[in-house]
Design brief:
Rossmann fold; 12 helices
């Protein structure tokens, strides 16, 4: 009898991914690119978006309900593809769920520490993520760094309105980045899954000497490592699928979501949530 090696594929169950709305699709896109054989199920809580301005208890409640929905599809791993939910709900989910649960904050923090030369790291995100101080704590668990944070509440609505290349977005980005650049940061963490859509404007404003850390890509690599360690890779004999669910307005999700994902989203199913 042939013994399975650690890098051999063993599990075709899907990976479950959730976010408050559209931003987590940048994470799903990175996972799809990094792990092309994996089946993926995405849930966008569009009835309750955004999470960034909501209380910790509310975000935990929504996250519990969404993960219960994903578990019905026998997911082998859950990705909390939302910085606010990662900050507030991830510790609870890790304690209560049997499968691996990964957020976006730890992978992004590790990548930032690795990239920084002068140990001065900037973090931009929603009010919820910044106020939680999760990146600050996680970065300093890994290495003693100076972490400068900046809440950017206007960026998500500008992105969702499709104003990525608009002059007003450039002005807002510059205003938010000024206090971080004054601290001479050499690394900037995009602490919101919407922000990869603004990489060109962010790069223009921070200059070539500042490294941008995309938590979506860092999270995809962390998922790959987790699947390897637990022998959970899918195999090529499985018919690949991508499924999308939302709690409200599937048509809007298809339109806006296609800008966040690597390909056009054609089918989205609305799910009635209890809360």
């Amino acid at each position: 009898m042939r013994i399975k090696t650690k890098n051999e594929t063993t599990n075709n169950n899907p990976i479950g991914i959730f976010d408050s709305g559209f931003g987590g699709l940048t994470v799903m896109s990175a996972i799809n690119e990094t792990l092309p054989l994996e089946n993926l199920i995405y849930f966008g809580d569009t009835a309750h978006v955004p999470y960034g301005s909501k209380s910790k208890n509310i975000v935990i409640r929504y996250s519990k309900e969404i993960t219960a929905f994903l578990i019905k599809y026998k997911v082998k791993l859950i990705v909390v593809a939302c910085n606010t939910a990662s900050a507030f709900a991830l510790p609870f989910l890790k304690k209560t769920l049997k499968m691996p649960v990964l957020g976006v904050i730890k992978p992004g923090s590790k990548a930032a520490v690795f990239a920084s030369r002068n140990k001065k790291i900037g973090v931009i995100g929603t009010e919820g993520t910044i106020n939680s101080r999760s990146y600050l704590r996680e970065i300093n668990k890994i290495s003693r760094c100076r972490v400068y944070q900046q809440a950017c509440p206007l960026l998500v609505p500008l992105i969702e309105e499709g104003l990525n290349d608009d002059k007003i977005t450039d002005i807002v980005v510059k205003k938010y980045l000024e206090p971080l650049l004054d601290k001479r940061i050499d690394t900037l963490v995009l602490g919101c899954t919407h922000y990869p859509l603004l990489k060109h404007i962010l790069k223009k404003n921070v200059g070539e000497k500042v490294v941008l850390i995309d938590s979506a890509k860092a999270t995809a690599y962390e998922i790959r490592n987790t699947l390897y360690k637990r022998c959970l890779f899918a195999n090529s004999r499985s018919k690949k699928f991508l499924r999308f669910y939302v709690s409200d307005n599937p048509d809007k999700f298809k339109t806006i979501g296609s800008r966040f994902f690597s390909k056009k989203i054609l089918n989205v199913k609305k799910i009635e949530m209890a809360c």
